[in-house]
UniProtKB/TrEMBL annotation:
This is Uncharacterized protein YjbI with pentapeptide repeats. It comes from the Bacteria. Residues 25-100 form the SV2A/B/C luminal domain. It holds the Pfam family LD_SV2. Signal peptide: none annotated. It comes from Catenuloplanes atrovinosus. Gene3D superfamilies: E3 ubiquitin-protein ligase SopA.
């Protein structure tokens, strides 16, 4: 499903087909930039900032980014294979038709992020704040979502088959509209899900 044009940031400059592979992007600041076909393979960053940018068909593969902000950005058709994000801020960003093979994220704030329909199979997300994120229809079979703050998140039609969800906030998860076969949960989550089904745990 294509992104509503009204949701796209109004960019002011553009960068096309740049080769930033292996570059250190630490400290760089980009605001309202349209990036198209940029190769960021194995690029690294600490404390970089991207605000209201649009990334189209960009490759972030095998990159490692720490405490980098990508706030209110839009990513369309981008590849995040083997990317590692640590304590990054992606508040309000939107991902459409992106790939996340062997993707890892630890810590950071992803509140209000849109990942509807994203393929997060085998991704590992640990300790990330994802409050009110849109994860509807997400494909997260075999994924690890550990101690993720999903308060207020939209989870309808999400597939968590054999996913490890221990420690995550599942207060908005409706077991009747999500797939949980074989998922690993902790005792507190089991009680929460039982309550959602109208069961009484004694």
């Amino acid at each position: 499903m294509a992104i509503d044009p009204s949701r796209l940031p109004r960019t002011e400059t553009a960068i096309h087909d740049a080769d930033w592979a292996l570059d250190d992007l630490s400290g760089r600041v980009h605001e309202r930039v349209a990036f198209t076909g940029v190769d960021l393979t194995e690029a690294t960053s600490t404390g970089a900032s991207f605000s209201e940018c649009v990334f189209t068909q960009c490759r972030f593969n095998a990159g490692v980014h720490t405490r980098t902000a990508m706030v209110n950005c839009v990513f369309v058709g981008c590849s995040f294979f083997e990317v590692g994000l640590e304590e990054c801020k992606l508040v309000g960003s939107v991902f459409e038709d992106c790939t996340f093979g062997l993707f890892t994220a630890t810590g950071g704030d992803w509140s209000f992020v849109t990942l509807a329909g994203a393929d997060l199979q085998k991704a590992t997300i640990t300790g990330v704040r994802m409050r009110e994120a849109d994860l509807s229809g997400v494909k997260a079979a075999h994924a690890k979502l550990l101690s993720v703050d999903l308060a207020g998140a939209t989870l309808r039609q999400a597939d968590f088959t054999k996913a490890d969800l221990r420690g995550s906030n599942l207060e908005t998860l409706d077991p009747l509209t999500t797939t949980l076969k074989g998922a690993v949960i902790d005792t507190a989550q089991a009680v929460q899900i039982a309550g959602a089904l109208g069961l009484s745990v004694r």
